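User: I'm new to structure prediction. If I give you an amino acid sequence, what do you actually give back? Let's try with this one:
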Amino acid sequence: MEQLYHSVTLDVKKCKGCTNCIKGCPTEAIRVRNGRAYILENKCIDCGECIRVCPNNAKYASTDSISRLKDFKFTVALPAPSLFGQFKEGTTIKNIVSALNKLGFDEVYQVPLAAEEVSVAIREYINRNGEIRPLISSSCPAVVRLIQVRFPELIRNIIPIKAPMEIAAKRAKEILSKKLGYSLEEIGVFFISPCPAKATSVKRPIGAKRSYVDGVFSISGIFSEIVKNLDGEAFQSIFEDASGLGIGWGRSGGENIAIGGDNYLAVDGIQNCIEVLEEVEMNKLSDVDYIECQACIGGCIGGALTVENQYIARVKLRRLSEKIGFQSNLNTDSIIKQFNEGYYHLEEKILPKSAFKLDDDLVEAIRKMDLLEKTVKDLPGLDCGSCGSPNCRALAEDIVKGQANETDCIFKLRDKVKQLAAEMFDLAKKMPPTMESKG
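Assistant: Good question. You get back a string of structure tokens that encode the predicted 3D arrangement of the chain. For your 439 residues, that looks like this:
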């Protein structure tokens, strides 16, 4: 049985059972029972939507502590492209890289640099593989998990190319091992993430047995410490600087710009992604070559673990990209050679998740499905969420699975109370035969 891990975590003590979280969850992975929320682990995709909407801060992302740097002889920070859009105007990449060095990292490998490599690899794959359309980006782990759970027939559309985070970690370890003589195990590589889905993909990678990344820090978790150390540019990394193409990956549409195609689609926001994936499922977008899907509004700059307003961050990232320029210094021929050798490809097939399976036994599953449909018809269909399930169909599913009762629905409970009251009233008018008056 697959071991489940989720970065998105519930603090039960803070939860008030308000039901805000259950309505926005794209995979219906949250229920409220006995006045407290709980997460269905087999449905959660770690998109972080519940973190955004919880008024009591009861949902949070579990990431690593900076003390983990002590576990390795040599440490590397992997700043996500979105990190560079979080700071005040005028902050340079060198300012940020030097600040990370002051925090305790021995080196800094810019993930935007790996994003430029991956852009070339994606372009090559699209050009060479025309039988499946549209191809779907694999860079957002929340979207990939969404497809596994809700759109398993679209797994074949996911482009089998590793995300920039993984390529950055792999490159950093290979280069440092060769130049400085450290073993791969002695080098600790830490991603600075805008979202909980990336933290989950490190502990439970998609398309690989293990991740090259050793840990994840949230942008919000170390942002204040970076700001305190933004006053210098003294540190000189042995790695190259990224161009504006890689930096642009931090916002919606940036991936497509870096790839350089003209028949691509960019979609951001988990609900918008669901709508587009439904269109793909119905074969309505077969004339589109590639879809860049990102679970957060605005792209990674809108991640649940960022600190800057997404619209402001988008402008900052665009201006920074333009200032740096869009001329990549990478050797395209070398990247294509490694692409041919499989360097950028996922190592394993992406498999569907049976999150909505009613029973392991097929006959019993069919019986439960029939019961579910009947139960749905008996419910009011208002999808109010007062029952602790996100909608009436989800409640029906919970009832069939034995995880809820029909009277959890306040409307069914009201009808039951009315019926009971009427019965009690009728009963109150009745007298035992021995007490009846003689007329």
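You can read the tokens as a compact description of the fold. Here is one thing that stands out. The domain at 66-340 is CATH 3.40.50.1780 (Rossmann fold).
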